[in-house]
Amino acid sequence: MSNKQAKSKPKAQAKSQKASKSAAKTKAKLATKPRKTTKSSARNATKSKPAARREIFVTGATGFVGKVVLVELLRRKAELGIDHIWLLIRRKRGLSAQQRFTKVCSSRAFSKLPGGWQSMVSVVSGELSQPGCGIHADDRARVCTGLTHIIHCAASVEFTLPIEEAAAANITSSLNVLELARNCPSLVHMVAVSTAYVHPASHRPMPEKLVPVPFDVEEVYADILAGRADERALMAATGHPNTYTLTKCINEHLVNQRRGNVPLSIVRPSIVSATWRQPFPGWIDSHAAFAGFVALIGAGHLNALYADPEIHLDVVPCDVVATRSIDTCLLAEPSSQGQPLLIRYAVATVKDSPLIQQCLDGMVSFFRSHPIDREPVLKWVGTRRSQFRIRAARHHGTRRALANSVLTVTGNTKARRRYNKVMDRVSFLNKAFPYFTKNQFDFRATEGINDPDYDPEAYIQVVCAGVYEHLTKKDPSQMSFAGRNHRDGALDWQWTMKQPAGNWAIRGASYALRKALRRCTESVTFDRPAFEAARAVIPEDALVVIIPTHRSYMDFLVCSYLFFARSDLGIRIPHIAAAEEFSRIPVLGWLFKQTHAFYIKRGMGKEDKDLSHKVRDLVRRRETLEFFIEGARSRSRQFLQPKRGLLRALQNTGQTCMILPVAITYDRVPEERTFLRELQGSGKPKMQLRKLLLWTAKMARGQVDLGRVHVTCGTPQLLDQSVDVRALSEGVMEQLQRHTHCTSHHLRCFLARNPLPGIDEHMLRDGIERRGGVVLDSGLDGHVQIDAEIERTMRHNWQHVFFPEAKAIVGEHAAMSHYIRSNAFVSESRVALVETPRSDALRGLIESLFRPICAEYAAVARWLASAERSPGEIDPNNIVRAMPQCHMPTIQSALQALVEIGILSQQGKKELVWNVPPAERRSALLNFADACIWPESQGTWNEENNDGAADHGIDWIPRSPLARGPIAQSSRA
Fold it and tell me: Quick check: 60 pLDDT over 90?
């Protein structure tokens, strides 16, 4: 590492960390804040009246800058008075111009434009390097007749093209567009996009003027076309580093000399990267230039960099370039014939450019918290050529040779080819870009970025986020931290010891769990933006209490492992409240205690003084706590009624707490077979070390595949002396249900068991997502042998989003009204049904989900009525053994419904007794059973309201204004 780098690093790191913390806030702010008109823009505004009709011709719309230019023209069409846009697109790789435009339309850059924007655009097929731009004569006449403005963005930004090819792309094409402009009788202004690096490296200021060249450009261009040009001699004469900047420089002179009466201007961008504001912060679809460095450093491949860390790197947002090009073309007055050519920079300038060291610190900081492959580490940065060769050989060459040897021996040809391609890119960047990373360019622009909110270091974070999401195709809301698909390039023991927190027991358990999750899960992911948003509203010194969903014993492990592995989330490894029975497991009971478990007695019905004392002690030490508000694991994945004892114990400490609801989604759970036996009426088995060891051995043999595991969180809830604990517990359950997702495996299992006419996986997924649900992709096969009862449990992750449709179909209904009231935690006022369901497909889905529930309510009542049942027989386990076709959770709900209407009453915690005289029981039960039957008439749905609509899908319902909002029928008593 250079001395300069070492001196500047502490200060740069501090700034980078500050920028990293505010990046998400900055991104959200930028996405909504409108662009201001600057004084310079006002000065450049044309004095003449705007054309009665404005038709814009754009080249290069399939490229990065061209797409953003097109987006901005469409977004600002009313402001700029644009009537129509013409795009010149060439055929490529067997695709027609129209087909390539269709592909452009699918880009996320256009996602915020109103529907139907394509009607503003016409596509013309052509080839810019051909005379007349390769446009058919009829099309050319049609285009030229009304054309008023031209924005020429098309170019080749490849540095290593032979000069003949570079000239065809950057000179000939531009001259052909100029000739097209000359034939447009209504033309007002043409703008050609060049590059700021037409200026060779120099310590002098670089004005907005043509750069002198030591030769006649017409003669040189003729030599290039004839194949006589010596590109090395030309670059040596001008000081340009590559054919791209050389041909752009020559082109500026040629279009100036040949422009005649064409109203022409030039816009010169510097290093173009991700957008700052529009279409949204961080959008990028090009790996070129700066993005290439970001991706390779972020992925941990680039470890030695030839650069001067003390120079400013002029990186400009793509939307700044697009805006400057549009404003120059449509608002600025072009120079008249005989006047100097109007040239405008689109650059950040030294003032708003970060130091290279700040760029590097920002990248390393970002990608350590958003890993791609391996941890990013820059081991050497400097400009001493001899040292660079040694460091590059050590950090790149040696590693490449070793990796190739291993991959050759293992026969992994595809991986070797992929790895060599990456390392070739590393070598190329260190050869092609030192010219830009060791020289300071002082561009003297009439107008810089001119955004009071612009922060160069915050922008680097925005670029990193854009590269992470749009180029590496990583989703921060599904960030991997364990499982078979997780890659971080570290050995397990090294990774374990490197984590900043954790005692010997936590580190040992994490080491074992890291290996175990690799054996039994496809991937374990977490929603980073959700946790960042939650952490942002939790004060630094606040006492944090984690409350996860409880579907498996794995919940204990996954939560603690997440906060051990991702200390950057700012949440300490929690102390976990576990059932006392864990303490009786030999060895493991003691080991759990060392990993921050403390044991509680369930079902006491009164304050546990030992528990209160333990909680007070942990609160006093400001430890993070974790407990399960549902109490025991939910065998059916159903959301259970909240237990409030620990919440009251926390409230009694007098300390203010922040409750963080954490939802954990599983494809499958380890206890699946055990839960199945319990759902079939077997009692809960005792915890045994032997069974755990047998399951572990099975996992080690590769016989366990749990698929996806995903962790996310809801909005933190405040707990202090003034809070109603009951209301708080309901709010926590609402957050847990809102943020628990389903997976594509769950949907495939449902459809395999319940094939429905007109509904496939895609349609079902779309229906769930339109109602605010989230469906995670899973690699598990939905056609594997899944027991029907297990498939029923999977539905509890998603069927609640269809509660409004069920109510709309059946109306007030004894079974469904009670079932919805018991299983939906989101209040009715938060989301309302938009329209009564009409399609046969949707009604078929609703019936498939909820008709069996109604039938089971009725079956329970009829079974009780079929004979004289003693209180001892009125037990869910007994009933499910008698009626194995019924789902245990539904039986429990049906019995609770009978309690609520007074047929049964509850004594103690579990015992049910009759609440009506024997003579009245049978009729009361049968009346209830009749009221539970699914209505054959489809309830309140009215055929007359259909108006002949041919709706065969389940996507008629508009997306809910809430991101994730299942709907409840009413609040609980």
Answer: yes
Amino acid in position 786: I
Distance (Å, rounded) from C-alpha 368 to C-alpha 299? 10
* pLDDT recorded at residue 18: 44
Assign residue 370 a region (left: φ > 0; alpha: ψ between -120 and 50; beta: otherwise).
Answer: beta
State the Cα–Cα distance between residues 561 and 310, nearest whole angstrom: 40
Measure the CA dihedral 728/731/736/737, to 10°: 140
Peptide bond into 434 cis (omega under 30): no
From the list 795, 498, 751, the residue with the least C-alpha distance to 637 is 795
Distance CA 566, CA 573 (A): 10
Strand partners, 191: 151, 265
| Burial of 158 from C-beta contacts in 10 A (0-12 / 13-18 / 19+) | middle
- Please give the distance of CA 437 from its chain centroid, rounded to a whole number: 32
Instruction: Using alpha carbons only, give the angle 830, 835, 840 rounded to the nearest 5 degrees.
Output: 130
Which token pair is 619? 């609160």
Closest CA to 845 of 776, 771, 774: 771
Nearest 5°: CA angle at 340, between 335 and 345?
Answer: 80
Instruction: Indicate the pLDDT class of residue 410, thresholds 50, 70 and 90.
Output: confident
- The backbone torsions φ and ψ at residue 578, rounded to the nearest 5 degrees and listed phi first, read -120, 155
- Which amino acid, one-letter code, is at 701? R
* Residues whose CB falls within 8 Å of the CB of residue 94, separated by 6 or more in sequence, listed in order: none
Counting residues of the chain whose pLDDT is more than 70, the rounded percentage is 88
The helix/strand/coil state of 123 is strand
The three-state secondary structure class of 526 is strand
Spatial neighbors of 179 by CB under 8 A, at least 6 apart, are 131, 132
User: Rounded to whole angstroms, how far apart are CA atoms 158 and 170?
Assistant: 11
Q: Rounded to whole angstroms, what are the CA distances from 641 to 488, 550, 602? A: 40, 12, 15
Cβ contact 626:547 at 8 Å: yes
- Mean pLDDT throughout 723-752? 95
pLDDT at 44: 44
Burial 243-264 (b: 16+ CB within 10 A, else e): bbbbbbbbbbbbbbeebeebbb
Pairing of β 625-626 and β 543-548: parallel
574 CB neighbour count, 10 Å cutoff:
24
Tokens matching residue 522:
């496809």
pLDDT at site 684:
79
Ordered structural domains, the chain, with CATH = 1-32+275-313+354-370+382-441+452-467 (no CATH), 52-269 (3.40.50.720), 476-717 (3.40.1130), 761-946 (no CATH)
Q: In the prediction, which pLDDT does 940 show? A: 38
Spell 476-510 as b/e; 16+ CB within 10 A means b.
Answer: bebbbbbbeebebeeeeeebbeeeeebeeebbebb
Dmax over CA atoms of the chain, in Å, equals 113
* Phi-psi region at 356: left, alpha or beta (left = phi > 0; alpha = psi -120 to 50): alpha
Element (H, E) at 359: helix 356-369
pLDDT at 8 over 60: no
pLDDT tens readout for residues 654-710: 889 999 999 999 999 999 999 999 999 887 777 777 777 788 888 888 788 999 999
Quickly state the pLDDT bin for 122 (edges 50, 70, 90). Answer: very high
If residue 319 lies in a helix (H) or strand (E), which one and from where to where?
helix 318-330
The structure tokens listed for 151 are 């924005």
Identify the CA nearest to 629 among candidates 716, 723, 549: 549
Q: Is 297 exposed, middle or buried (0-12, 13-18, 19+ CB in 10 A)?
A: buried
Rounded to an integer, what distance in angstroms lies between the CA atom of residue 732 and that of residue 640? Answer: 12
